[in-house]
Structures are given as C-alpha cells and as structure tokens.
Amino acid sequence: MKHSASQRESLTRAAKYYHSAIHEAEEYLAERGISLEQARQARLGVVLDPLTGHEAYSGRLSIPYLTRSGVVDLRFRALGDEEPRYMGLSGATTRLYNVGAFFRAGSYICIAEGEIDTITLDVVCNLPAVGVPGVNNWKKHYTRLLADFDNVFLFADGDNAGHEFAKSLARELSGLTVIQMPEGEDVNSMYRQEGPDFFKNKIASVRG
Length: 208
Known about the structure:
- By secondary structure, the chain is α/β, with parallel strands linked by helices.
- It is built from 9 helices and 8 strands.
C-alpha cells in the first residue's frame, strides 16, 4: 500500500516525536551494544507519551521505516519481556527494513532477520544491510531488488526458522551466501560476543 503525502507526513511527525525520548531506552540499547548516537542514526525512539491511536505501544521502542520520501511505517518493540515482542500499526503492509542501504551499498549487501539485527550490521558494524521483519514476511519481489549485487549475505538466526528461511531464500536467489549463526544465537548476540570482525571476516572470506 502506497501512502499519501499526508500519511507519510503524519508518520514522520510521530517518528520525530518519539525519537526525542530515545534516551529512555539507553539501558536496553547498551545491553545490545548499541550507543545512543547509533540509535539516533537509525532514528529510533521511545513511546513515552503515546499519540492518539498509539496507546497500545506505550513504553515500547519506536522503529521507523525510512525511505527517501520519508517514514513509511513504524514498528514497536517491547523493552522488557512483555508479549508480543513486536507490534505494528493496524493495516500496515510488511516492508523491508532499512532500504536506504540499497543506495549506500557497493557490490554486496547483507540481509538480517529483524530490525535490531539489521541496525547491528548496518549502523554498528558499518556493513550495508536490509532486514526482513520475521522470516515469514519475505516477499518474492524482494529477490529482484537484490539481483544486481555481486554478493548477497544472509546472516540467518541459529534456530529452525532461520535454517528454513536460509534454505528457502537459497532456492530463490543465486549468488546468496548463507552465514548461519550458531545454535540459539542471532546477529546481535554474536556481535556482543565477537565484535564486528566476526561479520567482516565472514564476508572477506567469500569476497577475497
């Protein structure tokens, strides 16, 4: 669904409003190895005082989906253990996260599962990355967006869903390199354990 200019403006205003409270998530971000400055680059926010219609997202991390035309979606992640972990706007269409990476990338690009893992690769590790918000949300036309890259690296979660996603995407996309995270791990947890060189070395071993 394509948003009207007024809808994009409304989403952009909401993202900016929530972004002003990002300091409220400093502890959560620090636990994931993400600094406030890096969170600001991604325009993350906190729903401290929800706007009308956003009451269900109170206390959650605000994650804007940014494009050249503005904010096209907002997702909300729990800062604690509450469920559901992620919530989206009513009626929103699932999209790739961080599509600006397509314009910054050179001959290769990375794919991560989820927004926090994408931020970890793209902003924290300085590796161009897009994210799919849940492995069941991959759409066929995403493959065409990736077709012109010499190398596409999928950093798949170390669980059954991650394994199945990797197998499915490998059938669709030639030139895909699957880098499976160890059992029970994801991109962010591996970054916290091993640092950015873990990912950069994996890429370098393929690209030479």
